[in-house]
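Loading example: each entry is read as two labelled lines plus one structure line.
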Amino acid sequence: MSDRYTRRDVLEISARGVALVGLGGLGSLLAVKAHGDDAWWIDPGKCVNSRLGALGVEACQSCATECVLPLSAVRAVNDFASCGRCYICPAYFDIHSAVGPDGLPSKTLCPRDAIKREPIGWIDPDDPANNYYEYTIDESLCNGCGLCVMGCKEPAGLGSIKLEVRHDVCLACNRCSISTACPEDAYERLPTT
Amino acid sequence: MSYRLDRKLAGRGTGESQFRAELRAVACDGERQWYLAGDQELEVLTSDGRLVNRWATGRPGWSVAIDERQRIWVGEPGQIEIFSAQGQLEDTWRSTELFRLVTALAVTPEEVFVADAGSRWIHRFDSDRRLLNHIGDKHRKGGFHIPSGVLDFALDRDATLVVANPGMHRVERYDPDGTSRGHFGRFGQQDPAAFPGCCNPTNLALGPEGEIVVTEKAGPRLKIYDRDGVLSEVVADSATFDVACKNMDLAVDRDGSIGVIDTIALDLAVFEPKMKPGAISAEGVAP
């Protein structure tokens, strides 16, 4: 058998290659389709809890109260890169509560105690105001009520906390009850790509 | 002495003295002229708001200072531009390391103080621009804590630097060599003498008698403290300023008039001292 390729051999190999590439692309497309190619998400620029300029209004808690799940699929997420690590965080403390003997607000804001406050770095035990603080949200406790998001919004805070849909929890209902209840049309279904 | 809102200058718009998108910094000179930096321009207004001059700056201005030769120093990202009184660019002083974002300036015949929001320090230079020392570098937090991104200070008559440290709810005093001379202030949402929210006061200026005039964000307020840090007056609040304002720069002229920037309305609110009790004017004797 000759080890030289004829013109016909080359054309056949090329045709098989093109077919394989085409099948691969179709397969990828079908894979995306099978996993769902759209999902619910929250537009922070529309959500009243995070939308700039929406001030002096009560936090909307529809994400916590309207989801069909026992614990909503929505969570508050702190973007550490934009967090100020403040001594007194208006998303953690109820800054309107009375000041205690330690100089801090006497109440916290989260009704489920889902935000943890820890001093970070080299800690000054004598002057707590001299430390930076990290605020982490326990997702097993957070129900997406949005109170902390409203507290963190500019200009009071830096807007580092936003509401997000946890897609590993979300049932992706066609007629999402949060979306139906959202007063700002901020709860949208969008393509994942 | 108490104050009242007298007038608002500039404003948002396309008029000759108005700003389209940004208004960030204000200073005043011995002639009671206002210098406003916004929209990558610098404009000069008379005390009553008439436009004297306006020109483009190389980069957006975040701070303004006037030196004894009436030159105008504009603090920008990465550089300081120095203009003649007529608006001609005389010099550009660049430093990507030391001037990451220049949000306050003070210029004396002997020294220049530059607040850099990037390092969160104030840099002290001699008149030949040799770096002498930093102020705030020995702070345990590595610098002043400025979550809102602006570091503001003023130079007192006795060469003390008065610095806003909003993350610690304090006004702090330093010698030019960086030695701390104490502080006042504490957190408090209800007590007007305290500083509310995450981080206040954001900006400050000094009055003719050394009184400390501060602005706060969320909600916006203008307050005056005496030299000892005792609250004298809450001059204005969200009834005067847009509630979304933050980092409201301010300046006080030689007669005690206070100019405050509304960063949303893009205007300069000018507050005038009310007549002192017993003072005699054309209107009669003040009560």
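Chain B touches chain A through 25 residues (CB under 8 Å).
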